[in-house]
UniProtKB/TrEMBL annotation:
Keywords: 4Fe-4S, Cytoplasm, Disulfide bond, DNA-binding, Iron, Iron-sulfur, Metal-binding, Transcription, Transcription regulation. Acts as a transcriptional regulator. Probably redox-responsive. The apo- but not holo-form probably binds DNA. PROSITE patterns: 4FE4S_WBL. Residues 17-81 form the 4Fe-4S Wbl-type domain. Its main location: cytoplasm. The keyword Disulfide bond applies. The lineage of its organism: Bacteria, Bacillati, Actinomycetota, Actinomycetes, Mycobacteriales. It comes from Mycolicibacterium fluoranthenivorans. [4Fe-4S] cluster binds at C18, C48, C51, C57. GO terms for cellular component: cytoplasm. This is Transcriptional regulator WhiB. Belongs to the WhiB family. Its cofactor is [4Fe-4S] cluster.
């Protein structure tokens, strides 16, 4: 069986607020201390909160087990505590 790419599965990314932004806002760097991480994550989450595809993004991150970065307004630690079902009912921004 040959798997075909499904463009619709990624269509949501075309309207993402982070499209074209520096990835350093969403992903920490080596040696980042707690204060800088918190500030960076707050900036990323503020962007996510206004993003029209936050739900799809969060669902993707939970489904594939994204281990790094802010996705769908959630940090890796926050995602690790949730399953896709609990994360999406109700939809809230942490
Ligand atoms: S929710 Fe955040 S990380 Fe996800 S697409 Fe939107 S801006 Fe990007």
């Amino acid at each position: 069986m040959r798997l075909e790419p499904r463009a619709e599965a990624w269509q949501w990314q075309t309207v993402a607020h982070c499209r074209g932004l520096e990835s350093a806002v969403f992903f920490g760097s080596e040696g980042e201390d707690r204060q800088r991480r918190r500030a960076r994550e707050a900036r990323a989450k503020a962007l996510c909160a206004q993003c029209p595809v936050i739900r799809q993004c969060r669902e993707h991150a939970l489904n594939v087990g994204e281990r790094f970065g802010i996705w769908g307004g959630m940090s890796p630690r926050e995602r690790s505590k949730l399953t896709p079902r609990t994360a999406l009912q109700p939809m809230t921004t942490p």
